[in-house]
Amino acid sequence: MYFAYPAFFLLFLLLIPYIMWYFFIRPKKEPSFKTASVGAYINIPKTVRQRFCHLPAILHVVAFSMLVVALARPQSTTAWNKTEVEGIDIMLAMDISTSMLAMDFEPNRVEAARNVAAEFVNKQKNDNIGLTIFSGEAFTQCPLTTDHGALLQMFQNISCDLPATGMIEDGTAIGMGIANAINRLKNSNAKSKVIILLTDGSNNTGEISPLTAAEMAKTLGIRIYTIGIGKNGNAKYPYTLPGGGVQYINIPVEIDTQLLKEIAATTNGKFYRAKNNDELQKIYNDISKLEKSKISVTNYSAHYEYFQPFLLICVIVLLLELFLSNTLLKIIP
Questions:
Q1: Residue 152, Cβ neighbours under 10 Å: how many?
Q2: Is the pTM higher than 0.70?
Q3: Closest CA to 186 of 175, 195, 199
Q4: What would the DSSP string read from start to end of 152-178?
Q5: 203 pLDDT exceeds 90?
Q6: How far, in Å, are 3, 74, 145, 245, 301 from residue 78 at the CA level?
Q7: What is the pLDDT confidence band of residue 39, given thresholds at 50, 70 and 90?
Q8: Which residues of 50-87 are buried (b: 16+ CB within 10 A; e: fewer)?
Q9: Cα distance between residue 6 and residue 3, in whole Å
Q10: What is the DSSP letter of 45?
C-alpha cells in the first residue's frame, strides 16, 4: 500500500497547537469559583463523567487523524509496471512419443522429464520460458512467459496420450520440435536464447531435418542443449494388448547420440546423456547456470482505493463525540 498524496500528512502538525490549547489555554477560560479551602473535596470519588471528561478531545484527534489519512488516499499498486531483470529466453522442447512411456526412469521417462523440468522452471525466477512438445508432429504448449505459474499448469498436460490415442502422429520429429521452438525465439531481443531439447530416440519423421533446424538456430543466435534420456541396453515398456490390459516388454534404447551431439555443436550448445532421474536433475542444474542477460518484464497489478474505511471511521467517531458531548459528557457552564 502507498499514498497518492502523502503531503497531507503535514496536517498532523495542526494537532500540536490544538493539544497545547486544550491543556494550557482552555482550562484558564473555563468557569470557576473561589473557595477558602479544597480540603473537603479531596476524598470525594471521581464520577464517570469526570473520568471520561477528556474523551471528546481524544475523539477529535482520532477523527482528524482518520480524515488526514483518507485525504492522503491510501491505495494499492496501480496498472502496468515495466522493469528490467536478469534472465534468458528458454524454450523447452520435450519428446512425447510413446517410447517415452518406457520405465527405466521413475515412474517413466515422460513423467520424470516433466517433474525435473518443472523444478527447473521454479528455479529460473526471472527467465522467459516456453514449452514445445513433439512426437511425429510439434506444437507450442506454452509461448515464452515469465508467468511460471501458468506455465507449470501447462506441464500437467505433458504426457504421451496424444500419440498413444492416435490424436497426433507418433514418431520422433526432432527437426520439427526444434523448428517450432525457434519460431517462438526468433523475435526475442534477449542476449541469451536457448532451446533445451529432450528426446529418447532418433529422428524418424518430420518435414525438417534436425541439422537444418540446427543451422536455422545458429543463424538466429540460438544455442541448443540436447538431452538424450534413457539407460543403455533395454528398457521395460508397457504394451497395451488389443483386448485390453497391459503387458510389459523390453524394448531397445535407440538414442541417436551422434545426431544430438552435432545439433549441440552446430549451435555452440552442449550434449547431455541422462540414464536415470538423478543424472537428469544434475543436467538441468548445470543448464540453470547459463549466462544471464537483461530482459524487460511487464506486470499488471489491480488498482484499489482504501480511503473509504478511514473516512467511515472519521464520520462514526465524530457522531459519537457529538452524541457524548450533548448527553452523558455535556458541560453546563
A1: 16
A2: no
A3: 195
A4: HHHHTT-SSHHHHTTSS--S--HHHHH
A5: yes
A6: 12, 12, 21, 57, 6
A7: low
A8: eeeeebbeebbebbbbbbbbbbbbbeeeeeeeeeeeeb
A9: 6
A10: P
